Amino acid sequence: MIKEALHDAEERMKGALTSLEQNLVTIRTGRASPALIERVQVEYYGSDTALMQLATISVPEPRQLLIKPFDGSTLKSIEKAILGSDLGLTPNSDGKVIRLNLPPLTEERRRDLVKVVHSRLEESRVAVRNVRRAAHEDLREFEKEKMISEDELKRGEQDLQKLTDKYIERIEEIGNRKEAEIKEI
What we know:
The chain is an alpha+beta fold. 57% of the residues lie in helices and 15% in strands. The protein has two domains: 2-25 and 106-183, Ribosome-recycling factor (Topoisomerase I, Chain A, domain 4, Orthogonal Bundle); 34-101, Gyrase A, domain 2, CATH 3.30.1360.
């Protein structure tokens, strides 16, 4: 009973961690990474489609991304989507491929990106705490319905807190790594 509740809570906390990692990949650092743009939504035959489904994205140089559309007719739509995104990048097209040159980050832009990282970390911490709260309510409900004893409830609460602390710590580690990446010149 308690093990199932803790296992479920852990799975949901892992989900919050995975979501955070995927989210942080899209925040630009000093070097080019296809993950930076692969989720940009491009209008393709009336529906929004992720860029990675419409083109191959490669890194020919440390500060450049090369986008090669599978279908040449999507070139203009891809350019428009990149210009409309919050990346602040200007696409250069030769009619066949699009090159994105990543300018070096300014100190001010680095500070702004660190703030974005901190807000995403806080969102993940809140998500983990919400999972803890829900699991805690489940444990209390088990005890209230006499499915577990008071001692089992206390042990379950301690285990739940340890689990929560473990995931909050991992969120901090991920955040510190990303912050160091952004500050790296």
